[in-house]
């Protein structure tokens, strides 16, 4: 039997969730609608007509859920704050009842020896900011509207003032690519707009929001406070080494990854991105001084990874497949890349239809190890959806998820061995929840949730992951799966 892979002492083992996906209590404590409340209540936008009104009721089951995390041996919990629960209009003073929920959550985590890792924004913009047209376009405000970035910085300062004495790690944004390009480009995420120019504006203003919020956090947090951002960079692969396929790879890498890492890490948007999108926008929404603000020093970079992206150059006389894993919308999330085709690789797939390929995670970790030497890395999301069902005894066995996570942890360990400064891993997700436009039809959790009774049942993957977290060792796969 092969020896277990040992992770370094102090490696952080955690799990993650997002506010709208788990909290529920959509109308309690002064909370007002976010764009996801509006979107999910719009007929035809979410599978099954599902909403996050109740989700998995984490707002009321907070203490039970923290005890569950403790029983599973988690060292950290990455959660997000609902902006409209704290600052309902996106402006003005905080609602203390909203902040009190997060105060109690953080206190519970610390009492159980679990490190809180706070994300300020996981896609739930206050609806009032989206609807604000003052200074914005006729179609609305939101992230294409520059003022939203300043509103976000004000909100960051409010949360930091309330929780900065107890929370060390702060992530500004989660996957700004999804917010910009699925929300304003393809329309498959809230707010459901389909405007390529607005999507590019949104991407810049999300970058600016990160920089302004990072400044606000530095001003409000004690010296031990740490600031990061969680991106979902694409592991883009050309289908062949033909010039057209390599050009497609370059183009999608610019839109998926370098549109964020360029300004964040180097203080500039890539020249090829600007050229690729010149027919859509002249980028004059980037003002003097913006790039210096965005390039605020980071304490770490969060990487979210699930599956690679395979592309080729399309032909003019054939329909282009778009198996990009992001759902079919009325618009495209790839402005300026109309002639790029997306392909589904062969091999195992999750319930999302995403290919299982841990080498993409290794490639990304090594890429950022090389592009940002000295910057610590965290895997802030990684996991898989499968069609989990309880057996006759009520147990939930999910060997596919164990195999998926094992493969990706092995890839992470390989990157560590090859020099990457990887500090931790957060499993997505702690428990089954509202999976955005898929509603409750996709289960990513290591804990099974009966959405009718809200009963929680740790799956075999949760017990397996608890063993990894407890020992810091990744055992051989065969015995783990057979034992599940």
UniProtKB/TrEMBL annotation:
The active site is at residue 381. The keyword Hydrolase applies. InterPro entries: GH, GH_1_N_CS, Glyco_hydro_1, Glyco_hydro_1_AS, Glyco_hydro_1_beta-glucosidase. GO terms for molecular function: beta-glucosidase activity. Its EC number is 3.2.1.21. It catalyses: Hydrolysis of terminal, non-reducing beta-D-glucosyl residues with release of beta-D-glucose. Keywords: Carbohydrate metabolism, Cellulose degradation, Glycosidase, Hydrolase, Polysaccharide degradation. This is Beta-glucosidase.
